[in-house]
Amino acid sequence: MDYHGGQRSLQDEHDTRRLADRLAERSRPALNDADAAFVAARDMFFLATADADGHPTCSYKGGAPGFVRVLDPSTLAWTDRDGNGMFLSLGNMMVNPWVGLLFLDWEAPRRLRVHGRATLEGAEVRVAVEAVFPNCPRYIHRMAQVERSAYVAPDAPEPAWKSADWARDVLPRPSS
């Protein structure tokens, strides 16, 4: 993990350069077995992308546990699901492959960051892992899951917004 001038300036101002360097030493270029098990058990993560001009977006991605597949220590994959049709994250990946993934366990609490480069293969997103590092869980609010979204099930219902007046006439045509 390399730090740029802005990060180094703040590290020096706050006397955290030594700590930042130690944390960088603890980052890994690939997932270890514990990381892989943690990712496979998650039912959600946050995805950060940026467009070609650096304008960011952050998306919540959810599914049943295991929807993010660990193909090998250096590759993660998931199938993108029907969304609102804006393609903010996937569109960004097409012009800027760098992504950040933040996996959280709200109950333990624990979190894991993964940085890498994304590619699209149809509806599948693949991330070539570049850096993996744990984050301090100190500020994670303890939460318990009440229920998973009905929309992650294979027989998910149609979302109500798709039948709203503002959306109904502009939905994509069903593929045949």
Number of DSSP helical runs: 5
Unreliable stretches: none
Radius of gyration: 18 Å
Strand content: 25-35%
- List the strand order in the largest sheet: 2-1-5-6-7-4-3
Biggest beta sheet attributes: 7 strands, antiparallel
Q: State the order of secondary-structure elements, H for helix, E for strand.
A: HHHEEEEHEEEH
DSSP E strands, number: 7
Give a short overview.
This protein is of the alpha+beta class.
Tag the structure with descriptive keywords.
single chain; 176 residues; 7-stranded antiparallel β-sheet; alpha+beta; 5 helices
Task: Give your account of this protein's structure.
It contains 5 helices and 7 strands, in the order αααββββαβββα. It is of the alpha+beta class. Strands 2-1-5-6-7-4-3 form a 7-stranded antiparallel beta sheet. β1 and β2 (56-62) form a beta hairpin. The protein is globular, with a radius of gyration of 18 Å.
